[in-house]
Specification:
- By secondary structure, this protein is mostly beta strands.
- The protein has two domains: 84 residues, RimM (Elongation Factor Tu (Ef-tu), domain 3, Beta Barrel); 73 residues, SH3 type barrels.
- Helices cover 8% and strands 45% of the residues.
- It is built from three helices and 13 strands, in the order E-E-E-E-E-H-E-H-E-E-E-E-E-E-H-E.
- The strands form two sheets. The protein has a seven-stranded mixed β-sheet with strand order 11-12-7-8-9-10-13.
- The radius of gyration is 19 Å and the shape is elongated.
Length: 172
């Protein structure tokens, strides 16, 4: 089974077992419909039932089965939350899960490989691809002017090469 990471538990919330979750999704309200999730424990995924959910627009607050006090909630701090792909939200045309894009070959319009997608930054107005090249990382805004095509099935992203001459690089 294929799993997608949707958030991480940051801390307990209150004294009745609720936890605060930093979402890894564009729509924090998608947690409100969550009936179950998975915690990764070692190399396996443990299914857990979601007993309650709410959101303040930035974070999600969840109550999991068998987590009914602050101590149990504290033990979950740092736990990553996953869903199985079968129950993932259906994305509209032209939208992709970041996990499906990572590792993609990034090429220019002539098919010349520029590097590999290693990270997607989400600073606000638009996402930014971080492309690992033979030199410094290349930062590419995910807007039509820069990104010509995204093909997650073949793990290829085609960018407008002439636009990249002006783009910045990151030296980590």
């Amino acid at each position: 089974m294929d799993y997608i990471k949707i958030g991480v538990i940051t801390k307990p919330q209150g004294i009745k077992g609720e936890v605060k979750v930093e979402p890894f999704t564009d729509d924090v309200y998608r947690f409100l419909d969550l009936k179950h999730a998975f915690f990764k424990r070692g190399g396996t995924y443990e299914r857990v039932r979601v007993m309650g959910a709410r959101s303040d627009g930035k974070s999600a607050y969840l109550l999991f089965e068998r987590t009914y006090d602050r101590n149990a909630a504290e033990a979950l701090r740092g736990t990553e939350i996953f869903i199985d792909r079968e129950n993932a939200v259906k994305l509209p045309e032209g939208r992709y899960f970041i996990v499906d894009l990572l590792g993609s070959r990034v090429q220019d319009g002539d098919g010349k490989t520029l590097g590999t997608l290693k990270e997607v930054l989400q600073p606000g107005a638009n996402d930014v691809f971080v492309v690992k090249t033979s030199g410094a990382d290349l930062l590419i805004p995910v807007v039509d002017a820069f990104v010509a095509d995204i093909d997650p099935e073949n793990k290829v992203i085609t960018v407008n090469g002439d636009m990249l001459a002006e783009e910045e690089v990151r030296d980590d």
